[in-house]
């Protein structure tokens, strides 16, 4: 997975654990694709400080993922969901009641997981 995408996903999961300034800098760098110089102008911070914030936040986010592993769990659940739905699509139902039950199971999986 590309690093920028990975960091964006980690920000979605663990971003609330960062300070507001850290979240802002990371959002500007990874989601808005601004340069360090552009971010330093917007945040009234030196370019070096912006660089340090990004490096520190990357270490924090990686540390959170190493300890909590939510991103890994999310991807495993997504893969399991796809697999289950794929298997359910193979099930052939002869009567209307069975088809309705199967449809409700699929809907429940899609809506809740």
From TrEMBL:
One of its GO terms (molecular function) is DNA binding. InterPro entries: RNA_pol_sigma_r3/r4-like (IPR013324), UPF0122 (IPR007394), UPF0122_fam_protein (IPR054831), WH-like_DNA-bd_sf (IPR036388). SUPFAM superfamilies: Sigma3 and sigma4 domains of RNA polymerase sigma factors. Keywords: DNA-binding. Transmembrane segments: none annotated. Might take part in the signal recognition particle (SRP) pathway. This is inferred from the conservation of its genetic proximity to ftsY/ffh. May be a regulatory protein. PANTHER family: UPF0122 PROTEIN CBO2450/CLC_2298, UPF0122 PROTEIN YLXM. Belongs to the UPF0122 family. This is UPF0122 protein D4Z93_05740. It comes from Clostridium fermenticellae. The lineage of its organism: Bacteria, Bacillati, Bacillota, Clostridia, Eubacteriales.
């Amino acid at each position: 997975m590309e690093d920028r995408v990975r960091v964006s996903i980690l920000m979605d999961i663990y971003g609330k654990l960062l300070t507001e300034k850290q979240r802002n800098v990371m959002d500007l760098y990874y989601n808005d694709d601004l340069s360090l110089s552009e971010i330093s102008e917007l945040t009234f911070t030196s370019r070096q400080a912006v660089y340090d914030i990004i490096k520190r936040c990357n270490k924090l986010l990686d540390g959170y993922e190493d300890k909590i592993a939510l991103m890994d769990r999310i991807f495993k659940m997504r893969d399991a969901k796809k697999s289950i739905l794929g298997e359910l699509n193979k099930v052939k139902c002869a009567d209307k009641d069975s088809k309705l039950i199967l449809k409700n199971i699929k809907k429940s999986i899609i809506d809740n997981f």
